[in-house]
Amino acid sequence: MKALRVGIDGRAFSSPAAGVRRYVSSLVPALLAADPALQLVALGGERGAIPPPLAYVDEPWHPPTNVGWSVVGLPRAAARARVDVIHAPAYTAPLWSAIPVVLTIHDVSYERHPEWYPYRRDAIRRAFYRRSARAAARVLTDSEFSAREIAAAYRIPRDRITVAPLGVSDHFAAIDRPNETLPAGISRPYLLHVGDLHERRNLPLVVHAMLEAQRRPGMPPLSLVLAGVDRGIGDRLRAYAAEAHVPDAVVCLGPVTDSQLLTLYRGAAALVYPSRYEGFGLPVLEAMACGTPVIASRAASIPEVLGDAGVLLDPDDEAGWAEAIAEVVTDEWKRGRMRKAGLERAPSFSWARTAAITLDVYREAARWQ
Question: Are both 271 and 131 inside the same structural domain?
Fold first, then answer.
């Protein structure tokens, strides 16, 4: 059987979106481990960001925009590389191509909730995403929730969409790390949120719930540590803490390294994840793998990831969140039970499984033309 040759959009390896970078950097070694005969070629992107042993094809001429790259440059690079399949790992793909395209769509929050993205050019972006999805031979996504949402939003037959749940890196593990120190300004106990500070993440709820929990008898001083890019709501979250006369209760760290993130997970009383909309919710999985208790929204894809290994709550139930926070911070037995449940569930999500499903989709797409 002829070895399959797949071109991956090389720009994904230096994407400004941390989740996209983690997706491709974790998927590629798992693909090569699953099928050593597989030939992977990075199509364009920053050469220094491309991991070995991928082959690399320089970007041919294209209009100097992201749309120009997807519409003109990427298919030209794929033709030059003589690949059997193009994998576009993040929402945008060639609108026409002689080579079949596999497109990964992690979620369709842009389409389902445009009110969260009030940017001048967002309608153009949504239209391009929609056209990319409809032109692809096959669509990959991270959860059953996202598969349903994609089918509804873009009117794509459900049998063209394949769910390949994400995995968790071996880096995120409940291991002892001597001399582990928290970033300056952080002390235990603290709650942790990982991900961009964005309207859909529903973070005001968890700030108010933490402040309410803090008023209960026997509660130690508590803070909320936010690790991720501030998309415009950080000042508002800090203002809530200042109004409650505890200005240090909200700590915005911005982006952190994987080493720092591991330290933060392992030191947290709980990961709090009150999001209203997620295509998967990778921080939930990473926290479970680290043995960190998880309190999360019963919304979107999150229950698929967390299952019964943590506490799931309505994203508008502020009193319920306050109660859950107080309980997990003060009840050592409950924390231990949640830690055990998360560690047992996390291994059911692996990049090896993601890669196996993805390989099957590549092979199906190669037969599509």
Answer: no
Whole-angstrom Cα Rg for the chain: 21
Q: Counting every residue, how long is the chain?
A: 369
Q: Do residue 96 and residue 146 come from a single domain?
A: yes
In this prediction, residue 177 carries a pLDDT of: 67
Residue 314 counted as domain residue: yes
Whether pTM > 0.90 for this model: the answer is yes
Query: Could you tell me the residue range of the domain that residue 342 belongs to?
Result: 190-348
Same domain flag for 143 and 218: no
**Tally of structural domains, the chain:** 2
Q: Do the domain assignments include residue 273?
A: yes
Alpha helices in 88-227 (DSSP H): 109-112, 122-135, 144-154, 203-214
Give the integer Cα–Cα distance in Å for 213 and 287. 22
Residue 369 in this model has a pLDDT that exceeds 90? no
Q: Which two tokens stand for residue 160?
A: 């063209």
CATH number of the domain within which 56 lies: 3.40.50.2000
Burial of 353 per CB tally in 10 Å (0-12, 13-18, 19+):
middle
| Domain-embedded: residue 184 | no
Kindly list the distances between the CA atom of residue 266 and the CA atoms of 20, 131, 180, 242, 292, in Å, as whole numbers in the listed order: 24, 42, 10, 27, 6
* Six-digit token string for 95: 């609108």
Q: In this structure, are 233 and 104 located in the same domain?
A: no
Give the up-direction half-sphere exposure of residue 349: CA atoms within 13 A in the CB hemisphere. 31
Regarding whether 104 and 20 lie in a shared domain, the answer is yes
Give me the amino acid identity at 140: L
pLDDT band at 120 (very low <50, low <70, confident <90, very high): low
More confident residue, 98 or 368: 98
Q: How confident is the model at residue 212 (pLDDT cuts 50, 70, 90)?
A: very high
Decide: 174 and 291 in contact? Cβ < 8 Å. Answer: yes
Rounded Cα distance, 353 and 349, in Å: 7
